[in-house]
Amino acid sequence: MVDASALAAFILQEPGWESLASYLKHCCSVDHVVKEVANAVWRAVRRGLISAEDGRRKVELMLRLINGNVVLFSELELLSRALEISLSRGVTVYDALYIALAEKMGPLLSLDSRQREAAKQLGVELVEV
């Protein structure tokens, strides 16, 4: 179970991105991960970290990865539980959606420390990278 922070780090080739590759071969995520990662790419372009053309290539790479390696689950099916998690643990609904899916599907791969702490408090197994 991979969240947007980990997938974006891989797509944007942030420090340590290589260590994430093996977890992305066959995994799952919430369907809005596509929007979150595309937004991270947009932000990198806006900040001048990558060119617009490189941003387009990275989004295409993400789409190929999603289509070939990542099973997506509907956020609508997870929203009620995610809201409960969000309200009780003080994380955004976006982050809570990943935790809700990880409760069902197994370990959570996230680079977000607040999200990881909330998941840990709920007994969700975390991938250590």
Description of the structure:
The chain has helices spanning 4-11, 33-46, 52-69, 75-89, 93-105, 113-121; strands spanning 27-30, 70-73. With 129 residues, the protein is mainly alpha-helical. The protein has one domain: Rossmann fold (3-Layer(aba) Sandwich). It has a two-stranded parallel ribbon. Helix 4 crosses helix 5. The radius of gyration is 14 Å and the shape is globular. The model has no long low-confidence stretch (mean pLDDT 96).
Q: What integer is the average pLDDT? A: 96
What is the assigned CATH homologous superfamily?
A: 5'-nuclease
Query: What is the number of helices?
Result: 6
Shape: globular
Helix content: 55-70%
Q: Kindly provide the radius of gyration, computed on alpha-carbon positions and rounded to a whole number of angstroms.
A: 14 Å
Helix and strand pattern: HEHHEHHH
CATH topology: Rossmann fold
Structural class by SSE content: mainly alpha
Distance between the termini: 14 Å
The figure for the number of domains is 1
Uncertain runs: none
Query: CATH top level?
Result: Alpha Beta
Largest sheet: 2 strands, parallel
Strand order of the largest sheet: 1-2
Q: Give the number of DSSP strands.
A: 2
Features:
129 residues, mainly alpha, Rossmann fold
